[in-house]
Amino acid sequence: MRARCLVAATMLAVGVAVGACGSDVPTGPTATSQAPRPGGGLTADQRRRADQLISIFENGTPTVQYGYAEDLHDGRGVTAGRAGYTTNDGDALRVIQAYTDLAPGNGLARFAPALRQLADTGGGDLPEADYIAAWKQAADDPAFRRAQDDQVEQNYFTPAMAAADRLGLTTPLARAELYDAAIQHGHGADPDGLPALIDRATARAGKADEAAWLTAFLDVRADDLRNPANADTKEEWSKSTDRVECFRRIAATGDYTLAGPLTVTAYGAAYTLA
User: What is the pTM of this model?
Assistant: First the structure.
């Protein structure tokens, strides 16, 4: 949520029906099976480009940043790691618990009690400077990277792909957009979470093909970033609407396959995602 991008890509037509208003059941002759898709419906190259785009949005670089950590003063505590794991809602705690299962006695394990208290009660005494330093120091540990990767799969990618399956979304671009939204908005039951955004987009789109549904979702998500239910996030989130517009610009080119190379410009710097 800390970068802006502009993407140009190649052309490809799309047309897949999604659910009727108030429903996430696919409709129409081009709707596909809701069975889980190997790899989340993305090839290895498409998944890599999706991860690179998210890294650009989150950290201003296509290289995944396991050691990033800072307090954004957005009401979520310290934001850290490849997916912006936050300290106030249990995200970071789950990473550290997974890391401790892999590497007992690691330098972050001592923060678990404070993180658990923050997650349970919203209060606690987390020494942020020490926590940030310990997170950055752990970033080169393969076990810590694996723990972060595993949490991305379990808490963001897999739920987003399951939602895409229920909607009957088949294009890599739409599926990557849900993945990015899960990273930023989370997959909880709150009004800013991915499920709520999906419900509002489906209500807005009605019976529409996939391209039209994706446009509705992008509109809903941009609206939420400007005016989130959680007012503490408004200042930070309102600066991040261009990550939504980035997907809209890809859609405008007709490249719903995330075909490479993608030329990306973020904060005036150009990147090529092969």
Answer: 0.82
